[in-house]
Amino acid sequence: MLDQPLIKVILLVGIVGVTVLLTRSTAGVRHQAVRRLLLVGFVLLAAMAILFPPLLTQVARFVGVGRGADLLLYGLTITFLGYVAASYRRMRQLEQQNTILARQLALNHAVHEARHRPKDS
Fold first, then answer.
1. Has residue 23 got a pLDDT over 80?
2. By the number of CB atoms within 10 A of the CB, which of 32, 66, 75, 80 ranks highest?
3. Which residues contact 43 (CB under 8 A, 6 or more apart)?
4. What CA–CA distance (Å, rounded) separates 62 from 55?
5. Has residue 65 got a pLDDT over 60?
6. What global pTM score does this model have?
7. Nearest of 18, 4, 14, 13 to residue 70 by alpha carbon
8. pLDDT tops 90 at residue 120
9. Cα dist. 69→2, 39, 53, 55, 116 in Å?
């Protein structure tokens, strides 16, 4: 458990960070700015890994991982977990919106039918 402590801390912080981002409200300019900054950071790190593979290996060894490819796998795992969680959260929001819209449409239809129904005398 105590081998490779730095990478374990980094990965756990990454998981906690993803969890915090996903449990906060998604409304607002600040949240969108954070998402854009994370995307830019991800793109820059990906470009660095492609252009300078030995640098990735050096970073991997620094944090206690043997190879750069392993570090890349760990990072992609955290990113994938974040993507799956964000997609699930978005799907739940869309389902809730659809439910609200369907209810409103049904009520509007019922009111419309009631107004235009011929009255029995």
1. no
2. 75
3. none
4. 10
5. yes
6. 0.65
7. 4
8. no
9. 22, 21, 9, 11, 69
- Identity at 28, one-letter amino acid code: G
CA angle 5, 23, 19 (to 5 degrees): 15
Task: Tell me if 57 sits within 8 A of 48, measured CB to CB.
Answer: no
Structure token pair of residue 40: 């830019």
Is pLDDT of 28 > 80?
no
Specify whether the CB–CB gap between 15 and 81 falls below 8 A: yes
- Please choose, from the candidates 46, 22, 44, 45, the residue with its C-alpha nearest in 3D space to the C-alpha of residue 34: 22
- Which amino acid is present at 29? V
- As a whole number of angstroms, the distance between CA 119 and CA 113 comes to 12
Give just the sign of the alpha carbon dihedral 102, 107, 108, 109.
positive
In 3D, which of 75, 82, 96 has the Cα closest to residue 22?
A: 82
